[in-house]
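My main concern about presentation is that the manuscript never shows what a single data entry looks like. Each protein is reduced to its one-letter sequence and a matching series of backbone shape codes. For the editor and my fellow referees, an illustration may be useful. For illustration, here is how one protein appears when written out as sequence plus structure tokens:
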Amino acid sequence: MTDTGLLVAVDGSAHAARAVAHAISLVKRGLATRLHLLNVQPPLDEAIGRLIAPETIDAHRRDAGSKALSSAQAMCADASVPAEAHVDAGRPGAVIVEQASALDCAAIVVGTRGHSGATGMLMGSVAQDVVNRGSRPVWLVK
């Protein structure tokens, strides 16, 4: 099998944990060889960015991202599945699609909260944004 990576969006939630578990099962079934676990930190308001040193913002993002990724990394380690953790910042849907491309991932795995109909349309959805923006296959895990 060629080296096939999957990008898994991780925010530390139970929905993300289910996405990680599904991605692990895909590796175990031989459909991928490794996982890229990505946490996307929100962009900061421009005014805040002028008040706080960039190094402080970066350190905070790395710390928050590492905390959000820790249980996903433990799940992968427990399952003996190769995984690399990444932290980025920006609009989650856009960053997920960009990173999947930059890392040459075969597909993206995203947990969903299960909103549909008017609630889903009004609230917006990272998963929906990924599906709309990307050209790679996307697994939505409920």
